[in-house]
Amino acid sequence: MTAITEDGAAPPEAEPAPAGDRPRGGALAGATAAAEAVPVTLPGARHLVLVDGSGYIFRAFHALPPMTRPDGTPVNAVYGFTQMLSRFLTDHRGSHLAVVFDASRTTFRNEIFPDYKAHRPDPPPELVPQFALIREATAAFGVACIEQQGFEADDMIAAYARQFTAEGGEVTIVSSDKDLMQLVRPGVQMLDPIKQKPIREAEVEEKFGVPPAKVPDVQALAGDPTDNVPGVPGIGIKTAAQLITEYGDLETLLEKAGGIKQPKRREALVGHADKARLSKRLVTLDEAAPLTLPVEELAVRPPEPRTLAQFLQTQGFRSVLARMGLGEAAGDAGSRARNSAVAAHAAAAAATRAAPAEPDAGKAPFGPYETVTTLAALEPWIAEARAAGLVALDTETDSLNALRARLVGICLATAPGRACYIPLRHVAPGNPQADMLSEPVAAPEQIPFDQAIEALRPLLTDRSVLKLLQNAKYDLEVLCRAENGGIAVTPVDDTMLISYALEAGRHGHGMDELSVLHLGHKPMGFDEVTGTGRARISFDRVPLDKATAYAAEDADVTLRLWQVLRPRLLPEGALALYEQVERRMVAVLRDMELAGIKVDGAELARIGEDFSGRMAALEQEIHGLAGRPFNVGSPKQLGEILFDEMKLPGGKRSKASGAWGTDASVLEELAVQGVPLARKVLDWRQLSKLKSTYVDGLTAAIDPRDGRVHTDFAMAVAATGRLSSTEPNLQNIPIRTEEGARIRRAFVAEAGHLLLSADYSQIELRLLAHLADVPALREAFEKGEDIHARTAADIFRLAPGTVDREARRRAKTINFGIIYGMSAFGLASRLGIPPVEARGIIDAYFGQYPGIRDAMERLKEKARLQGYVSTSFGRKLWIPDIGARDMVRRAGAERAAINAPFQGGAAEIIKRAMVRVPGALREAGLSGRMLLQVHDELVFEVPEAEVEATAALVRAVMEGVVTLRVPLAVEVGTGRSWAEAH
């Protein structure tokens, strides 16, 4: 039952080793340590090592960066797999060895429950050709390969473990799959290939709360969203373990469920008993599965040298050839035609290690670069890129908006200092207004647009050539929209996102800043070639010599940044984050931005008229309260009214201008003190902002070609890993106000479709319960209780069912405020109570949940010691001011250190869901499209006939994307408009 989707544990990280290099770290070191952790088999002893091949394939694929063999076939998973097998064979671990695979996706479990694993996405396209190669590798090493139609790999592992131990042998299962833990017993252990630690009965009981033999009972109750095992709603692992411990087994529990005192638990068990029994059949491994090979055929034997050498040479795996003692790897033709992407990566790593302080020392100068104006001149560049196995790519356009930009030129770089610019749509150079006074100038020579696109298309879509970009999403959208069919560029690496995965919050991730920081080089500025102000010209009018110097340098810098930054991902623990999340998000967001969301312009106009009328009425009220007319939108005039004429206390003048401060905090304080003018101005400002930003702004942003708004999701801005939305910003529309709901009504579905909103429920509080390991909060989430009512009952010592609205409101405020490091003064302001009372509530909160205070203190201490904190998924969130001498700045940094893992963790979870949902929809044959991400919410446009199926699939993927100590919950709604769906 190997999980294709994430199960909450970070996968191994690995770096492809150059020929002859000793593998370092991650999956490759894991393979080494895994082999060494298997008990040495004494002469004559029988010890079977069963490798969960299906599980290892996916882990190796996600751990290793893209690698291709000379013919362009992806081989990163194959490489990790061969490293593992070579270690087991050369180190003589085990008397018997077999690799077990899933034969197909359909097994006997689908016959008893058709929805079993129904929402699993297709494997990544780069992985598909590697399945057959890994089976070839197993055969080439002379290792037994086991698979059986109608059964999963886990069933075959169970059957062979039973048979081998019955004959007096010992078994080690190389896997960390929780579904295999039910097999652990005397004589059978597991080996976690990631942590290189054995898993025995104690480890299983620590994870599940029951001995291995009872694991299927616990899994049957808790269910498994990853495999679509239903379980019993509202029962998690902890509760399931308690029930099985108390009643002994599942069947006894179900027979006696009617006598359980807790009503919700009793109703769930009685009402879903059949689901529990079905779930146990799904999770129980079949130890009686038919053996495809006799046990004795699993005995370790040396591989046939010629067969193995030929296979390894074909793949270009020189280090494995050397390990297996199969000749001088450097001398064979297959090695000379090595995997160029791997070689380039290794060379970059070596260069970085050789000169860490000055990574650009001794490299080629920046320019001069070549201007390519004929197909004959372009062909050698294309050939050079193919030979290198990678090419840095950049586009030049006439707009910063990717969906409105026209492609003007393309830049390529194949090595440091080796770059070119291919102009495509340049016109006569110079300022068109000045040109009107002189003789017309002919456009420069360049390749006709259509011919250039067709010449570049095979290179830019070639999976064996890695494309390196800075802010890849922009260029990918421009190229997708290019005339003549567009180009879907793949595969890509993004230097902006590599930097973001390494150092979110530490600095910006724009190319110019990264170039100065890592290369010691300041690139040519845009203003240097286009001018400024009224004299600025569009890029298509820049003379080709200047355009080439500017544009080709961008590609050159991108390639050099990749050489410096990419090798850091593995040793700094950011490879999995980048490969699994950030890099995959590029294509997901590209498609979302290209799709856009439909906006009803007529409805926006009606909303605008209403807002204008209400603003005018408010202005009249404000003038009446002020005693005279004034410009309500002028902070200076408002300050004079409030503090000079009305003589209100608390005013502060700006040191720079001398004007009174009238920002929102000042007005809120006055409103609390009972000044009606301040409240009316706040109301007016809100309407004014909504009208200008969302009514007028959205109206201007509607694309006349499709009637839709196409926002731009910024991927590398927020220090916490969150996405942000610009042009227009669709993430700041008020959620709980009437005005915000009205604006959401203008976002509508196309005819025959509905909008579907899927929103994570209280995800940051769930992360708090997970990270701080608070038993009471975990229990409340597992039972599906009202978390704020439960908190109120706990901290105010109220009996269940007696929590009133005010107590719940206070608990809700502190539940969310605690994540942001809220002080007693902050809580007092929020609740309108004295600070002393607020301090008492906070003390009661921490007294009831001491693990939360401990977790917060650990986060602050970690930030002070390391300069960063981490999410549960490994992202480092840098806190620059944590050591500041200024107390205010330092306090702000401490609050950020507390909040970052929760906001960052929530961002990671929804991003992981986003990279899985589109594939899951395709696999299920559903045509819904993901349009928006607004913090914890995803918005889809779905054909009416597919709404129910899409809602179920989206919920299953989102809730099953990671495993926490508490269950994830997703609320789904649908409607003609976003307001109806939300």
UniProtKB/TrEMBL annotation:
Give yes or no: UniProt keyword Transferase: yes
Its GO biological process annotations read:
DNA-templated DNA replication; double-strand break repair
Which parts of the sequence belong to the DNA-directed DNA polymerase family A palm domain?
Answer: 740-946
For molecular function, the Gene Ontology terms on record are:
3'-5' exonuclease activity; 5'-3' exonuclease activity; DNA binding; DNA-directed DNA polymerase activity
Q: Which residues form the 5'-3' exonuclease domain?
A: 46-301
Q: Where is the 3'-5' exonuclease domain?
A: 369-570
Q: What is its EC number?
A: 2.7.7.7
Q: Has the keyword Cytoplasm been applied to this entry?
A: no
From the UniProt record, list the reaction(s) this protein catalyses.
Answer: DNA(n) + a 2'-deoxyribonucleoside 5'-triphosphate = DNA(n+1) + diphosphate
Q: Which domain of life is it from?
A: Bacteria
InterPro entries from the UniProt entry: 3'-5'_exonuclease_dom, 5-3_exonucl_a-hlix_arch_N, 5-3_exonuclease, 5-3_exonuclease_C_sf, DNA-dir_DNA_pol_A_CS, DNA-dir_DNA_pol_A_palm_dom, DNA/RNA_pol_sf, DNA_polI_H3TH
Q: Where is the composition biased (Low complexity)?
A: 7-28
Keywords per UniProt: DNA damage, DNA repair, DNA replication, DNA-binding, DNA-directed DNA polymerase, Exonuclease, Hydrolase, Nuclease, Nucleotidyltransferase, Transferase
Q: Where is this region: Disordered?
A: 1-28
Q: Which Pfam families match?
A: 5_3_exonuc, 5_3_exonuc_N, DNA_pol_A, DNA_pol_A_exo1
Q: Which family does it belong to?
A: Belongs to the DNA polymerase type-A family.
* Listed PANTHER family: DNA POLYMERASE I, DNA POLYMERASE NU
The task this protein performs is described as: In addition to polymerase activity, this DNA polymerase exhibits 3'-5' and 5'-3' exonuclease activity.
The UniProt entry, under NCBIfam families, shows: pola (TIGR00593), PRK05755.1 (NF004397)
What's the protein here called? DNA polymerase I
User: Taxonomic lineage of this organism?
Assistant: Bacteria, Pseudomonadati, Pseudomonadota, Alphaproteobacteria, Acetobacterales
The gene designation is: polA
